C-alpha cells in the first residue's frame, strides 16, 4: 500500500478539520470535554452529536453513497480516524448501529429493513445494542437459551441477556434467540431479531463496572414481542448473520489502533514531563527501552491493520483476520496503560480527586481489561487466528 498523501487526500483532511472546528460542541477543542452525567442528558447530548455528524455527511463514511455513506477510500478512512482521535471527538452513542448493525443490514437485510432502519441508524434517531451474550453463553454463543416461539404472525421472546452495552439507551437490539431445539448441531435453530426495546416485555438493569461507569446491562425478556419483518436472514439460520455482524465488530475494534497511536504519543509527552529524582522519566534507560518496544509493536500492528483493511475493502466484507487486529490492539492497550501506571510510582494507584494529575491513564487501565473480553476474549481470538487464518487444526476442547 502507498502511504503518500495526495493533494486530494490532504484536501479531504482539511475539509474534515474545518468541519470539526466549526461543529464540535462548544469548548470541546479547548479541552472542555465533560459529558453530562445524567442518563437522559447524556443520551440527548450524544444523539445530537451523532445527528450533527450525519448532517455534515460524516457518519459511516466507508458505507456506499446509496446508503448515506461517502464511498470513502481506504486513505480517507484512515485520515478520518486520525482526525477524530486527534480532537478526541465525543463517543458515538450509536457505535453498534454504525459499525455493526448497519453494515450487516446492508449485507443481509431485506429492502424494507434497509428502508426502515438505515437512515435512523445514521442520524442517531434509533440507537442500537447487541443482545448476544447470556449467562453461560459468551464465548460459546451457540449455548444461548433465550427462546422465541411463533404465535401467529408474531414471535414471543423469553430469556436473559447480559453485558449488553448501551442497552439502557437503546431503541432496538440486534438479538439472537433460539427458535428450534430439534437441530442436531447447536448453532442451528438460532434466529436474529431486530427487537424493539421500547416495550413492556423488555427490562434493562445496569451493571456497574470497576471504574464506576454503567455502560452495560442485564436485559430480561418476558413475553417480549417481535414480528416476521424483524427477522434478519432465515428463521433458524441466524448463525451466518451473527458471524457477519461479529466480523464487522472486530474490524471496528481494530480501528482503536488510532487511539493506541495517540496514547503512545501521550505516553512520550508524559515521560518527558514526569520527573523522578529530578530527572525526566524519558531519561531512564528502562523506560526508553520499553517505549521503543511499544513503538515497534504498535507500528507493526497499525501496518497489519492497514493490510487487513485493504483486504476488507477489496472483498467488500471483513474476514477472520479482523481477529488479529482485535487481539493486538486490546492486549497492547492493556499492557501500555499498566506500564504507565507503574512508572508513576505511588501516584499510579491514586484515583479521581486523590490523584495529583488527572486519572486519564488510570481510566484507560481499568477500561482495558474489558477491551480484551468484549467482542470475544483474547483466547477466543487466538483460536480464530489459529484455525481460520493459519489453517491449524481445531481447538481440542470443541
Ligand atoms: C466491555 C464489554 C462489553 C460487552 N458488550 C457486549 C454487548 O454489547 N453485547 C453482548 O452480547 N455481549 C457483550 N459483551 C460480552 C462479551 O462478548 C463476553 O463477555 C465474551 O464473549 C466472553 O464471554 P463470557 O463472559 O461468557 O466468558 P466465557 O466464555 O465463560 O469465558 C471465560 C474464560 O474462558 C476462556 N475460554 C472460553 N472458551 C474458550 C476456548 N474455547 N478456548 C480457550 N479459552 C476459552 C475465555 O477466554 C475466558 O478467559 C461485552 C463484554 C465486555 C467486557
Automatic annotation (TrEMBL):
Ranges where the Acyl-CoA dehydrogenase/oxidase N-terminal domain occurs: 6-125
Molecular function via GO: flavin adenine dinucleotide binding; oxidoreductase activity, acting on the CH-CH group of donors
UniProt keywords, alphabetically: FAD, Flavoprotein, Oxidoreductase
Presence of the UniProt keyword Oxidoreductase in the record: yes
Annotated Gene Ontology cellular component terms: plasma membrane
Acyl-CoA dehydrogenase/oxidase C-terminal domain mapped to chain residues: 236-390
Swiss-Prot/TrEMBL cofactor(s): FAD
Ranges for domain Acyl-CoA oxidase/dehydrogenase middle: 129-222
Protein family according to the UniProt entry: Belongs to the acyl-CoA dehydrogenase family.
Protein name: Acyl-CoA dehydrogenase
Organism: Virgibacillus necropolis
